[in-house]
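Possible regression after last week's pipeline update?

I re-ran a chain I had predicted before the update to compare outputs. Posting the input and the new output here so someone can diff against the archived version. Not blocking, just want to make sure nothing changed silently.
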Amino acid sequence: MALKHILMVGATVVLLAACARVGKDYTARVEARQQAYAAAAGGPVDRFHYFSLWSWEPLGDRQLAIYTRSSEAWLLDLDGYCSNLPFTNNIALTSQASEVLVKFDRVLTGPHDTPCFIKQIRPVDVAKLQSPQQGKPREIEEAQRPAK
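New output (post-update):
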């Protein structure tokens, strides 16, 4: 019984160490992305127009990059903690007549989550982003379907 207990404790320690490592890697990745977007962002604006959401990237629980086209992005700073933002698969933006306004419109992360008010909007110069994969669709490798 003692050996089984020691093995369980050992396995738990290894698992916790692995989780801590993953958490540090995730935090470092998010901080690097936040810095890249901050460096590419312009001054604050009051609003932006959009007709559809092309893509988006969560930057923690208080910041979000919104792509309205492949070459047009906006950095949104959110007022307070935005529940579930780093983990949700879908978001929505409130707007009126395809216009999103600072301090009025919100980011929605789910039906049961509290809406997140947009505190600040900054345009992003997509060409200045440091990561080569940002601002363009990911490359897709195409192959012919094998004949039956």
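Follow-up from reviewer: compared with the archived run. The chain has one domain: 3-128. Marking as no regression found.
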